[in-house]
Every structure is written in C-alpha cells, then in structure tokens.
Design brief:
The protein is an alpha/beta fold and 250 residues long. It has a seven-stranded parallel beta sheet, sandwiched between helices. Strands 5-7 form a two-stranded antiparallel sheet. It is globular, with a radius of gyration of 18 Å. Strand 1 (5-8), helix 1 and strand 2 form a beta-alpha-beta unit. Helix content is 43%, strand content 16%. Helix 3 packs parallel to helix 4, helix 4 (98-126) packs parallel to helix 6 and helix 5 runs antiparallel to helix 7. The protein has eight helices and nine strands. It has a single domain (5-249), classed as 3-Layer(aba) Sandwich (Rossmann fold). It has helices spanning 14-23, 36-45, 59-71, 98-126, 145-151, 160-179, 200-206, 219-229; strands at 5-8, 28-33, 50-53, 78-81, 90-91, 129-134, 155-156, 184-191, 240-243. The relative contact order is 0.14.
Length: 250
C-alpha cells in the first residue's frame, strides 16, 4: 500500500496530536507546531511521527521548511491545516485588544493560507493532493453566549474564533474551486464541542443544545479524517463536514 505523506499544523495540541497519532499508523506523518515541549511529548509517545518546529505565520520560515522537505524528495500529498487559537471566554468583554485579534487571525487564517500557498502549489504541479482545513461548528453558527453567561457570570466568547472559522470556510471554497481541475481536493472538517476534561456545569449546560445529548469524543472525528484522505474519495471538494451531534441543525 502506498503511504500518504501527511503534514499537520498545530499538531502538538489536543486534536492535532490525536490526528497525528492515528494517521501515523498507516502513513508518514510530519507534525509541525511552535511548542517544542509538546512536540517532544508527542514524539515520545509515538516514534513514527516526524516532528518539526515551525511558525506558520512567518512566510520565510514556511518557504524554507517547504524547500527543506523538497530537497529530501518528500512530497506532501495531504495537508491538514489544524492550527488555531481557541478564544477563551472573558468576563465583561465584548471586544478583545488588537494584539490578541491579530494573533488569532494570523494563526488561524494567515497560517493556513501560507501552508496552502506553498504545499498546495506543489500538489497542483503533481496533480495529486488533498487539503483538509479543520473548522468548527462555529464556521456556520455564532456562539451561544447564554452557555457561558449562565456558568461563568457575565462571560462572553470572543468574536475571533467565529471570524477565523467562517473565514476558513470561505478559504476552503475558494481553493477548492481554484484547484478542482488539478486533481487537488480541498475540504473542511468541522467538529462540534469535543470533550477535553471540561467543567461538569459547562457540559450540563452545553448538551441541552445538542440533540445527541453529549459532547463529542476524538474518536468521533477519526473516520471522517480517514474518509477525507482516502485516495478513492476524489470527487468531493469544497465541502464542510460538520460532526456536532446535531447541534447546528436546530
């Protein structure tokens, strides 16, 4: 079986590390992040994963990393843009400062754009590739502020995460259209709330809005990732696969 060469950004984070660990069982995985400590933990758990420090918002470093792999004759045929900063609910703030705004926009949107610019162009030349942008249920809905306000008095989920994920969906459709006749598929995988040691009060409040009446588990996403990278899945592009227990349908 021919192995994919899969590049995952934000791979030292919660879901990124899960994608990397799972996909490394049958593929060559190249995990990038700016957190060396967490990358080393990932490598210690799974020696099959290739780890690299990379600031994806720095175009010179992205370009240099791209050419580094190319010199080693490593062609990335699957790119998973997973890097993002999850905006933390803040007390009494409807707006965040510009430094935080720029940071979150840069990591979530600019970084994905730069990775697509370099690795996507190579896919076009090879006429072979799949790009998966990791979105969120907040790529199609706004955060329900009542969830946060009822648990954490007067807390508000900042605007940035919604802006990033809505923007990433637009980028997905744009590049899906641009690359469609080059045999490069671009899709988005949008998880709903995934359990990660959340506060019980938060869970109890949140699942009221989820028809499945539970938060998602990382395992709920794995089969969708496998489907999106499957070589036989060659006709679907520009789609947003939402795995949210039904949260966005009502």
């Amino acid at each position: 079986m021919i192995k994919n060469n899969i590049l995952i950004t934000g791979s030292a984070g919660f879901l990124g590390s899960i994608y990397a660990d799972h996909l490394s069982k049958a593929n060559n995985v190249f995990a990038v992040d700016i957190d060396l400590k967490k990358l080393n933990i990932l490598k210690k758990k799974n020696r099959e994963i290739n780890i690299f420090i990379l600031d994806i918002v720095n175009e010179k470093k992205v370009k240099s990393f791209f050419h580094k792999l190319k010199r080693k004759n490593i062609f990335i045929n699957v790119l998973i843009n997973n890097a993002a900063i999850d905006s933390v609910p803040a007390k009494g703030k409807n707006y965040i400062d510009m430094n935080q705004w720029n940071l979150e926009i840069n990591v979530g949107l600019t970084g994905s754009f730069l990775m697509t610019k370099y690795f996507g162009e190579e896919m076009i030349k090879k006429r072979n590739g799949k790009i998966i942008n990791i979105g969120s249920d907040l790529s199609v809905i706004a955060p329900n502020q009542d969830i946060y306000k009822k648990i954490y008095t007067n807390y508000t989920k900042p605007v940035t995460y919604s802006v990033v994920k809505h923007g990433l969906l637009g980028m997905t459709k744009y590049f899906a259209s641009l690359y469609a006749d080059k045999n490069v598929n671009v899709n988005m995988l949008s998880p709903g709330p995934i359990f990660n040691n959340h506060n019980k009060k938060f869970i109890d409040q949140l699942i009221k809005f989820i028809p499945k009446k539970r938060m998602g588990n990382p395992e709920d996403l794995i089969s969708a990732v496998d489907f999106l990278i499957d070589r036989k899945n060659s006709y679907m592009t520009g789609q947003n696969i939402i795995i949210d227990g039904g949260r966005t349908i009502i």
